[in-house]
Write a structure and sequence with these properties.
Elements: H1 3-42, E1 51-58, H2 62-75, E2 79-86, H3 88-96, E3 103-105, H4 109-117, E4 121-131, E5 133-137, E6 158-161, H5 166-178, E7 186-188, H6 191-199, E8 205-209, H7 210-215, E9 221-223, E10 233-240, H8 246-257, H9 259-267
Parallel strand pairs: 1-2, 1-3, 6-7, 6-8
Antiparallel strand pairs: 3-10, 4-10, 5-8, 5-9
Helix pairs in contact: 3-4, 8-9
Length: about 270
């Protein structure tokens, strides 16, 4: 066999080995790509939220929760947050009466207990903020109110929340601590109604929350009093068993408790839990 023939055969063997290696490498690469694609398609995806989430919330949460509702809808296109704001006791009665709601945010543990005792809560409620009382007067404080005791001045028209409402129970606790007996011109069913009596010049003063004075944006003037420190209300929140959108309910609660949610609530005047 000539030297040139041997050289040609050797060249062909090397070329064949290189082609086989290339094919093997290509097969591995293809297998790897397919495996990666398969793993990606089988990975569990986060559920896309949709539909309406119904939130029952204490009247004092109206401004901050409305803002958080808009943020929730922005983050989750296809969802809608529907609110019902009222006195916590009224909302609790509606829930235990079977009203369909996904989330309940109360202004006191006592009103939340009405819901949990009835077995209407889904999971344990969690405190997400706290709130402190303040006296709301007309702008400029024409009645010169500077303390709880000043609310007993002759001729002064004072409004309180009803004793069954968290703001009313807290006001009663503060008045008792100060040893003050006070007969208001009216008891209101929620804190916004009490505040509006002052805004509409139907009362000289009302005991409300600091957050409500702040939300009034200058239409009333706030007066702090030391007894309020002993009558701070915790605000619990929970998902509800009668809810129709459990995933959205949990996501809304998560937003409320998140750093972004706490920032909105803090700017509204709420205290950290």
């Amino acid at each position: 066999m000539t030297r040139s023939v041997r050289r040609t055969r050797r060249t062909l063997r090397l070329a064949g080995a290189g082609a086989a290696a290339a094919l093997a490498l290509s097969a591995c690469s293809s297998s790897s790509d397919t495996s990666g694609q398969s793993g990606s398609s089988n990975a569990p995806a986060s559920p896309k939220l949709s539909g309406t989430v119904t939130v029952f919330a204490a009247a004092s949460l109206k401004e901050s929760f409305t803002s958080l509702g808009k943020e929730f809808e922005h983050r989750h296109p296809g969802t809608k947050v529907s609110f019902s704001f009222s006195g916590s006791d009224t909302l609790a009665a509606s829930i235990t009466g079977g009203a369909p709601a996904d989330v309940f945010a109360a202004a006191s543990p006592r009103t939340m207990k009405t819901v949990t005792d009835a077995g209407a809560a889904s999971g344990a409620p969690v405190t997400f903020v706290r709130n402190q009382l303040e006296i709301a007067t007309r702008p400029g404080n024409p009645a010169k109110v500077s303390s709880l005791k000043d609310l007993t001045k002759s001729g002064l028209k004072v409004v309180l929340c009803d004793k069954t409402v968290p703001c009313g129970a807290a006001a009663r606790k503060a008045l008792d601590a100060a040893g003050i007996e006070l007969t208001p011109v009216s008891y209101e069913q929620d804190v916004k109604s009490a505040l509006n009596k002052v805004r509409l010049d139907e009362a000289d003063a009302a005991v409300v929350y600091k957050t409500d004075v702040k939300a009034a944006k200058g239409t009333v003037q706030g007066v702090e009093f030391p007894e309020s420190a002993g009558a701070v209300n915790d605000y619990p929140i929970t998902a509800l068993k009668n809810g129709r959108n459990a995933e959205a309910a949990q996501a809304f609660i998560a937003l409320v408790r998140s750093a972004d949610g706490q920032k909105v609530l803090g700017e509204a005047g709420f205290l950290k839990p």
